[in-house]
Amino acid sequence: MRITTQLSILGFVLLNPLWVQTCIAAKWDIKPDISLREVYSDNIFLESTNESNDLVTELSPSLVLSADGNRVDLQFSYSMQNLAYQDHTERNDTNHRLQTLLKSELVKDLIFFDANARVGQQLVNIRDGVSVDQISGSQNSEDVYSYSLSPSFKPKIGNFLLADLRYTYDYVDSENDNGNNLNSSDSTGDNLRASLKNGSSTGNLFWNLDYNSREIDYTQGDRTDTEVLQGSIGLRLTRSFSINVSGTDENNEFIGDRGNSSPDDSYYGGGFGWTPSRNFNLSISYNKRTDPRPNEDENFISGSLSWTPTVRTNISAKYGNRFFGETYDFSLSHQMRRSSWQIAYSESVSDFRDQLLNQELIGTLVCPLGSSDIQQCRLFNPNDPPKIDEQLIGILGGQSSISNNTYINKRLNASWSISGAKNIITLGVSNQQRDYIGDGASEREFDVNLTWSYKLAPKTTSLISVEQGENKYEDSEKGTDLSLRWSLTTNITAKSTLSAEIYYSDRDADTSLRAYTENRFTISFQHFF
């Protein structure tokens, strides 16, 4: 049934004459490039004892394709990482990395279609190591495939009613090097979202009704079902002040190998909103639960704040209460002439497939397509997602192992950077805690990194980075990671770069078999056509 549904959706879009005409009229751009790297490692399998060294050749051609039109935006990027090990030829492999994004308007202002597909490598066991480029410790990474199809319908009934109906089908598949599926994490998802809200003709009266239903089915029989219905109605008493009443009904069912849980929630409340200017908005509500569970607040306050005091400063905050307790969400960013900093904290219900589909991979490296050179990479930031000519290649922590378990994700990220005529210094801190809903177990990862980039000459740049991380697992086992990196990169032509890199990593763990050290030396060349 699901296969028929997704083929019908895809067939309707691709065979639609308006779609074909729109694609032909779009502006197309093609950017190919190729990179060649020689990597020497003295511990290619990241073992605690009996280390093996090896020399690895990496050849990575890549292609970026984009189409930009009035009613279509297509982004396609692909790179093929070919690895040849000199001594351990059984590890020779090809890693495919694909990232596509489609946004289209099939019928003007009425019918839309979005889609995306991704192929990459992800961490299997968070307690074991793997290098950012998948060369060392590659036995701890697996290929992961995902895609989603999402048609939407947005009718308007005069100036009275605005509607938005969206259906999303998504698929996630994990496969190991031997072609054996990791069945516990293979899954399909169905998501239906419907929204109704008032138009401009309702005057001072405003209202909205939102419905969200999501069902995830795993191959081995585990399942996640969520259903949320929310509604509110309010009245503007003045240009800046309004009152409202609202209600929420939430039903959940989480079935996984950590246990089953069905934490439902239902509450209603009333409050006010204050918007004295377009740069400031404050809303506060007092809520009451209809059927509170033991140790759950029957009455609670929720609120949100959005404030832009200057064009360079943004502040937002939210406070609420869900089935797992109090919830907090906060972000603050500020930019100055030569420096910028930001801090963000959030709490949400998540799982591995959510992180993959939504690219919530905090701690992952974002690099130019086809390149694994740290000089050209940056840490992933959810407020600055990968561009079409970039790829997610590194796993530095901050994400769960491949699994089917749902958890409460508590995440803190902070960064600061300063730039001068020749220097760029960046400091980043991240802390993530996962509280699993099934059995209450917790995992925590903390990471701090410092990077200094210095321009030695007009075409030559030096980069030094230091990173320290600490992991705490549910059974109280701990692990720490330290990495040091120094690279030199020079532009030998307008379209070619040459770089050399020295890298050291040290993992210390309570379990000695998980501890290791690695020394690396890398020479790389990249050419853009």
Quick overview of this protein structure:
The chain has helices at 2-15, 17-25, 352-358; strands spanning 27-41, 54-68, 72-85, 93-107, 111-123, 141-153, 156-157, 161-175, 187-198, 205-218, 223-236, 241-256, 259-261, 265-277, 280-289, 299-310, 313-322, 325-335, 339-350, 365-368, 378-379, 390-392, 407-419, 423-436, 442-457, 460-472, 478-493, 496-509, 516-528.
Average predicted confidence as pLDDT: 83
Overall structural domain count: 1
Query: What percentage of amino acids are in beta strands?
Result: over 45%
- Would you identify the CATH architecture? Beta Barrel
Helical content (DSSP H or I, runs of 4+)? under 10%
Number of helices: 3
Structural class: mainly beta
Largest sheet: 24 strands, antiparallel, barrel
What's the overall geometry?
globular
Uncertain stretches = 176-183, 393-398
